[in-house]
């Protein structure tokens, strides 16, 4: 895994280790662009008095899932040549990429935390333990779904592109970039099938007392985490020879 991690760091951007500084900046830039648009369009905070904090609390879990799982989806395809070494296994490649993306996201969160502090926001949650648990399960969900997507993509390469496109729908229906609770009841119900919707609701509930918990279920998100990790590991175990021969 260490060899795969070092190769991934050097090869992803500019063939230099410093290229790894770019991935953490992508979610930050993404969030800052949206928050700037909300500010200049005179949007007001639905909860609390801080618009930037309200949308940041939704964007962090939504971007954590989309970035980690999306980059994991192409991990085997991008590093398939390393499977020619007997010591390197499929899970080494997938977990190495998940480790890198987790580090990247943690750096992104720290940078966003510092930015919020610098503009006068108070990014400390009312219930820190709940915010931490929400992020932990969001990361587990991203890794589990990422393993599934990576195995399928290694057998059917076009799937990685389909998965990346589908992330736009997952992102919007999560409620991270928009406040979904003003939408019609039927729309909100359909969005609740998206597990990231529950990650966003869990995070915002840790910040805002009285945040709407309609259709929010911690059990649903945890079940998705366990199911995705289990299915991912089973696919990696039983489809290994199809991946090697693809």
Average pLDDT value?
A: 86
Taken as a percent bin, the fraction of beta residues is: under 5%
Task: State the share of residues found in helices, binned by percent.
Answer: over 70%
Q: How far apart, in Å, are the first and last alpha carbons?
A: 22 Å
Return residue spans where pLDDT drops below 50 for at least 5 consecutive residues.
none
How do the helices and strands follow one another from N- to C-terminus?
Answer: HHHHHHHHHHH
Per the principal axes of the C-alpha atoms, what is the gross shape? globular
Total DSSP helices? 11
Question: What composes the largest sheet?
Answer: none
Structural category is mainly alpha
> How many beta-strand elements?
0
For the structure shown, list the relevant keywords:
mainly alpha, 11 helices, 0% strand
Describe this structure in words.
With 246 residues, the chain is mostly helical. The model has no long low-confidence stretch (mean pLDDT 86). The protein contains eleven helices and no strands.
Question: What's the topology here?
Answer:
Layout lengths: L1 H11 L9 H19 L10 H23 L1 H4 L11 H29 L9 H28 L2 H16 L11 H7 L3 H13 L10 H21 L1 H6 L1
Helix pairs in contact: 1-5, 2-3, 2-5, 3-5, 3-6, 3-7, 3-9, 5-6, 6-7, 6-9, 6-10, 9-10
């Amino acid at each position: 895994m260490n060899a795969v991690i070092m190769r991934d760091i050097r090869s992803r951007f500019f063939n230099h280790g410093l290229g790894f500084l770019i991935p953490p900046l992508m979610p930050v830039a993404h969030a800052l662009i949206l928050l700037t648009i909300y500010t200049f369009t005179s949007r007001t905070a639905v909860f609390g008095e801080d618009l930037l904090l309200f949308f940041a609390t939704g964007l962090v879990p939504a971007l954590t899932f989309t970035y980690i799982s999306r980059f994991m989806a192409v991990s085997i395809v991008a590093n398939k040549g390393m499977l020619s070494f007997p010591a390197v296994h499929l899970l080494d490649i997938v977990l190495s990429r998940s480790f890198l993306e987790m580090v990247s996201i943690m750096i992104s969160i720290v940078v966003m935390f510092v930015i919020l502090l610098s503009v006068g926001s108070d990014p400390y949650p009312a219930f820190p333990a709940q915010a931490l648990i929400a992020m932990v399960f969001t990361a587990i969900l991203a890794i589990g779904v990422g393993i599934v997507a990576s195995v399928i993509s290694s057998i059917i390469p076009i799937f990685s592109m389909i998965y990346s496109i589908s992330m736009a729908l997952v992102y919007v229906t999560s409620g991270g970039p928009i406040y979904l609770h003003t939408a019609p009841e039927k729309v909100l119900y359909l969005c609740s099938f998206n597990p990231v919707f529950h990650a966003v609701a869990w995070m915002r509930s840790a910040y805002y007392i009285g945040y709407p918990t309609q259709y929010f279920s911690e059990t649903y998100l945890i079940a998705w985490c366990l199911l995705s990790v289990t299915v991912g590991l089973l696919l990696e175990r039983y489809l290994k020879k199809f991946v090697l021969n693809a």
